[in-house]
Input
Amino acid sequence: MDTETLIRSLAADVKPVSRHAIGLRIGIGMVAGGLISLVLVGRVLGFRPDLDLAMHGYSFWMKWAYTASLAVGAVAASLRLARPDTPRLRWLWLLVIPMVLVAIIGVFEMKQVPASDWLAMWLGRSWRVCTWLVLLLSMPIFIGLLWSYRKLAPTRLRAAGAAAGLAAGAFAATLYCLHCPEVSAIFVLTWYTLGIGLAAAFGALVGPRLMRW
Amino acid sequence: MRASEDQLRNWMIGGLNGNAGDHSALLGALVPMLQAFYRRRMRDSAEDVEDLVQETLIAVHTRRATYDTERPFGVWLFAIARYKMIDHFRRRRQTCQIEDVEHILIAEGFEDASIARMDVERLLDTLPAKQADAIRDTRLDGLSIAEAADSAGIGESDVKVSVHRGLKALAARVRGER
Output
């Protein structure tokens, strides 16, 4: 096809584009994937029976604040990486702040109990599965984000993949909180972070292949 | 004639608002720009360049939502064009030959380099001929002191002194100009 004809056919289909199109598209991908993960948490894992009670305690909110702040940061990075001319992402270092805060809470909690309990506090009852469940639950959300990116224009595919993986992992961990009964900060800092980090690493690994356009 | 950044941006914004006339004017104006962009950076055939231009036009059309109207249009456009070029090389599993790399590097830095070169020449013109020649030979053209001395028919220490005095004078002039 010659270029003139191409331009004519492209110009025949010019729908107005909303200024918030990127946010909308990434939002739809996140929410659609998140709904699937939520159903998995509710149906397969089961919500924790004491959810009502837990929501009055601080550790539930500590966990949510941690995972949600990582998710917000990762979504903000994904929004930027969706454009071909990505501005700097140095501010991503700010994501260390929630980690440091949770670490401080962890140290504080450890001071409250005898040292012989530290191992039990760190491993909880579910350290073997927690990381993997977070990684598993992140997959529907990651796929949702891949769908979002299909109409967007990332040029740094590895970074975009990592950001999408991080967003998916952190959002999955937020949903996993509805099931997970663990309460200690060092548990969250270790096993949640590991699951979220694996999701980000997975995204970085497959991003260059799956996000090409 | 090339459309200005402002003109392109206005067309782009018109297209984003659903104005088909603006959009087709934009795509039309991009064709020569993209042709020049790819031709300068690739040794591929004319058809390959035309394919890339078309692919880029399609990307500009289908992914136009990713343009942030607050930011310069050219940066957005060439980020897409560069991505498409790299993707093209990758698809071909083509590693650039070393001459091509040089070619691309020259094309990338061409404008900056030529502006810098013009500034240097303008400054050198203000020096005595002997000092200017000594600096040009040893610092710009990469001759050794001995070669520069030979070509100017003067002693090596004379070359060194000329370079030293010339650079000092230039430095003083640059500081004075600011």
User: Anything to note?
Assistant: Chain A is about 70% helix and 0% strand. The interface with chain B takes residues 1, 3, 6-8, 10-12, 14-19, 21-22, 25, 82-85, 151-153, 155, 212-213 of chain A (CB under 8 Å). Chain A has a mean pLDDT of 92. Chain A has one domain: 19-210.
